[in-house]
């Protein structure tokens, strides 16, 4: 089965100061085969885009209230009367504050939530089946399951 991919191109604003910002084209990507994550590619003046990956839940919550800590923090606010989502990103290479249009981010998130509803992400990974396969004894396991190896037994005089 092929994964479902939900993408959205949008223009973010790199906030330099309250009065100044630079437009930054970006692409939001969600893949059903990586159901817990969202991927954001920032297209800046470089050979390759700058990619960030973080929890979809973080972005979903950040549309409504401040959340996150450390490398990624997200919160809603208003700028010039319009709703925006701010993303503060920190890395060893530097920090960035990006402003995204809340309506566009929210509509993209809604599409991802229809593809993989909240609480069903784990089923997409097939972990239950993989764990069952890993923990199910096989015929070659039987001697080990029957008891200790002869070399593990203690003999008189030791």
What's a concise summary of this model?
The chain has 158 residues and is α+β, with helices and mostly antiparallel strands. The chain has 5 helices and 8 strands, in the order E-E-E-E-H-E-E-E-E-H-H-H-H.
The arrangement of helices and strands along the chain is EEEEHEEEEHHHH
Helix share bin: 25-40%
Find the structural class using helix and strand composition.
alpha+beta
Report the total helices.
5
* Morphology: elongated
Instruction: Report the strand count.
Output: 8
Cα distance spanning the termini: 59 Å
Largest sheet: 8 strands, antiparallel
The neighbouring-strand order within the major sheet is 4-3-2-1-8-7-6-5
Q: Beta-sheet strand percentage? A: 35-45%
Low-confidence stretches: none
Backbone CA Rg: 24 Å
Average the pLDDT over all residues and give the rounded result.
86
């Amino acid at each position: 089965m092929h994964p479902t991919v939900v993408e959205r191109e949008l223009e973010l604003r790199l906030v330099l100061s309250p009065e100044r910002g630079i437009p930054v084209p970006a692409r939001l990507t969600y893949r059903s085969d990586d159901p817990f994550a969202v991927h954001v590619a920032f297209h800046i003046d470089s050979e390759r885009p700058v990619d960030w990956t973080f929890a979809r839940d973080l972005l979903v919550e950040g549309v409504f209230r401040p959340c996150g800590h450390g490398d990624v923090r997200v919160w809603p606010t208003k700028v010039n009367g319009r709703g925006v989502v701010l993303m503060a990103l920190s890395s060893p290479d530097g920090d960035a504050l990006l402003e995204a249009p809340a309506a566009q981010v929210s509509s993209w998130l809604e599409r991802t939530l229809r593809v993989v509803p909240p609480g069903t992400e784990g089923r997409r990974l097939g972990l239950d089946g993989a764990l069952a396969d890993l923990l199910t004894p096989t015929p070659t396991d039987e001697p080990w399951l029957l008891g200790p190896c002869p070399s593990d037994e203690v003999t008189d005089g030791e």
